[in-house]
Specification:
Structural class: mainly alpha
Helix content: over 70%
Largest sheet: none
Number of helices: 7
Order of helices and strands: HHHHHHH
Distance between the termini: 43 Å
Length: 149
């Protein structure tokens, strides 16, 4: 990916350098559009590569993702129906479904589940009264004094 971008940038630089030489301008300034070209190409490829990474890790979804990408601006009755069904669920059920969907996409799903369990455990401790919350100002003062801010 980067090698191809570098090679294309060098070619672009040489063409601009040659054109600037023909009109007696400072040809070294060809480096400016070349750098801009390189940054744009690398950024473009990095965006495209994320989709390809997801497709390679989740082979069964490849065709569905491609179809969705091809039809992103079109109405999709299947998605619309699914959305309507999901919106009929209670807030708690939708939250649980969202957690499951996100964790299925996350390569660090186990870590995410552990953090979620920790958040729920702490929330339960606060609700039960086993622990007391700390006011924000007190917490900030403690952090500032600990780190010398």
């Amino acid at each position: 990916m980067v090698f191809e971008s570098i090679l294309n940038t060098v070619i672009f630089f040489l063409v601009v350098y040659f054109l600037l030489s023909l009109v007696n301008l400072y040809p070294i300034i060809a480096i400016i559009p070349a750098v801009i070209y390189f940054v744009m190409k690398v950024r473009e490829k990095s965006k495209r590569d994320k989709r390809e990474i997801v497709e390679s890790k989740y082979a069964p979804l490849k065709e569905k993702l491609r179809t969705a990408a091809d039809n992103v601006n079109q109405e999709n009755p299947v998605i619309d129906e699914l959305e309507q069904e999901v919106l009929k669920l209670s807030a708690e059920e939708r939250a649980r479904l969202a957690e499951r969907i996100i964790s299925s996409l996350d390569s660090e799903a186990e870590i995410e589940r552990e953090w979620l369990a920790e958040v729920r455990r702490r929330d339960a401790e606060l609700d039960s009264g086993d622990v007391a919350g700390i006011p924000l100002e007190d917490a900030l003062t403690s952090i500032r004094s600990r780190f010398g801010w």
